[in-house]
Amino acid sequence: METLFFLIITLVAIVSALLVVTCKNPINSALALVMTFFCLATYYVMLDAPFMAAVQVMVYAGAIMVLIVFTIMLLNIRVDATKRHSHKVVLGSIIGFFTLVNTAFIIMRSRVAMPNGPLTGEMIRQQGHTELIGREMFTTFLLPFEITSILLLVAIIGAVILAKKKL
Amino acid sequence: MLGAYLPILLLVIVAVLFGLVSIVLSSLIGQKKPSPVKLAPYESGCTPVGTARERFSIKFYLIAMLFILFDIEAVFLYPWAILYKKLGVFGLVEMGTFIVILFVGYIYVWKKGALEWE
C-alpha cells in the first residue's frame, strides 16, 4: 500500500517537474512547481519528518512561490513566452544522462561508513519530530537560532532599501 | 503511520475532484452560444484596457518580500509552541529575544513607510 502510494506520488512529482521546464507560459511552470513542492512535502511525511513537510508547504509552496510569481509579473516576458528555446537539447540530454548514471552508480555502490546515530525512525515517532528539532534548536543551537533573527532583520532592511523609492 | 495523514489526503482528493467535476460537468451540460460580450474576461465588468501582461510595480514585490521574511519568522514559532511548557521561562526569554530583534525590523518597515501604498 505504502509502496503504491510512493509510486503514485513519484509519478506526479516527475510529471510536474517535467512540466516546470517544458511549459511555455511561465505562470504554468510556476503552478507545476507548486505541485512538485507538494510531492516533496509528501516524501517528508513518509520519511517521518512532518515538521519538514509543513515547512516545505509553508515556505516553499507558499512564500517562495509568491516570490517567483511576482518576479514573473515584474519582468516583461511577453516577448520570450511566444518562442520556444530548444537549443542544446542533445548536449544537455547526454550530460544529464551521464550525471544520472554516475549518481545511481555512487548510490548503489555506497554503504554506511559510520555507526548509526541515536536518531532512528522508532525514536522519532516516539518523541515527535517537531519536538526533537525544537529541543536541539533551543538548547544546543541557541546562538545560531538567535543569529537567524539578525539575518532576517538584515533581509528586511535590505528589501526596504532596494525596493523603496524614497527612504 | 501514514494513516494519521488520511484526512489531508481526502481533502486534497475532494478539492481536486470538486474543481474537475465543476469544469467537466459545466462544459458537458451547459449550452455554448458564445458572443463577444460573453467571451470578455469579466462579463458585465469593466471593459479591459490593454493587455494583462504588463510589468507590475516593484511595490508588490516589496510586500511579497516582507511576507516571506515574516512567514519564516512564524515557522520558528511552531517548535517553540510545542516545547513551550518544557522550556519554561528559558524558552520565553529566548523567543522573546528573537521576536524583539525582528520587531525592530517591523518598526523600521513601518517608520520607512514601506507598508504604505504611495
Automatic annotation (TrEMBL), chain A:
Protein name, as recorded: NADH-quinone oxidoreductase subunit J
Catalysis performed (reactions): a quinone + NADH + 5 H(+)(in) = a quinol + NAD(+) + 4 H(+)(out)
Membrane topology: Multi-pass membrane protein
Origin: domain of life: Bacteria
GO cellular component, one term: plasma membrane
Function as written in the Swiss-Prot or TrEMBL entry: NDH-1 shuttles electrons from NADH, via FMN and iron-sulfur (Fe-S) centers, to quinones in the respiratory chain. Couples the redox reaction to proton translocation (for every two electrons transferred, four hydrogen ions are translocated across the cytoplasmic membrane), and thus conserves the redox energy in a proton gradient.
Transmembrane segments: 6-23, 30-47, 53-77, 89-108, 141-163
Compartment annotation: Cell membrane
Keywords, alphabetical: Cell membrane, Membrane, NAD, Quinone, Transmembrane, Transmembrane helix
Principal cellular location given in the protein's record: membrane
One term of GO molecular function: NADH dehydrogenase (ubiquinone) activity
Enzyme Commission number(s): 7.1.1.-
Pfam families assigned to the protein according to its UniProt record, in alphabetical order: Oxidored_q3
Classification via InterPro entries: NADH_UbQ/plastoQ_OxRdtase_su6 (IPR001457), Nuo/plastoQ_OxRdtase_6_NuoJ (IPR042106)
Family to which this protein belongs: Belongs to the complex I subunit 6 family.
Organism: Oryzomonas japonica
Signal peptide (from-to): none
Automatic annotation (TrEMBL), chain B:
Catalytic activity field: a quinone + NADH + 5 H(+)(in) = a quinol + NAD(+) + 4 H(+)(out)
Primary residence: membrane
GO molecular function: NADH dehydrogenase (quinone) (non-electrogenic) activity; NADH dehydrogenase (ubiquinone) activity; quinone binding
Gene3D superfamilies, alphabetized: NADH:ubiquinone/plastoquinone oxidoreductase, chain 3
Cited InterPro entries: NAD(P)H_OxRDtase_bac/plastid (IPR023043), NADH_UbQ/plastoQ_OxRdtase_su3 (IPR000440), NDAH_ubi_oxred_su3_sf (IPR038430)
Localization (cell): Cell membrane; Membrane
Residue intervals passing through the bilayer: 6-29, 60-81, 87-109
Coiled coil: none
Keywords: Cell membrane, Membrane, NAD, Quinone, Translocase, Transmembrane, Transmembrane helix, Transport, Ubiquinone
Membrane topology listed for this record: Multi-pass membrane protein
Enzyme Commission number: 7.1.1.-
Example of a GO cellular component annotation carried by this entry: NADH dehydrogenase complex
Domain of life: Bacteria
The keyword Secreted belongs to this UniProt entry's keyword annotation: no
Assembly behavior: NDH-1 is composed of 14 different subunits. Subunits NuoA, H, J, K, L, M, N constitute the membrane sector of the complex.
Family per record: Belongs to the complex I subunit 3 family.
PANTHER family, A to Z: NADH-QUINONE OXIDOREDUCTASE SUBUNIT A, NADH-UBIQUINONE OXIDOREDUCTASE CHAIN 3
Function: NDH-1 shuttles electrons from NADH, via FMN and iron-sulfur (Fe-S) centers, to quinones in the respiratory chain. The immediate electron acceptor for the enzyme in this species is believed to be ubiquinone. Couples the redox reaction to proton translocation (for every two electrons transferred, four hydrogen ions are translocated across the cytoplasmic membrane), and thus conserves the redox energy in a proton gradient.
Name of the protein: NADH-quinone oxidoreductase subunit A
Species per Swiss-Prot/TrEMBL record: Oryzomonas rubra
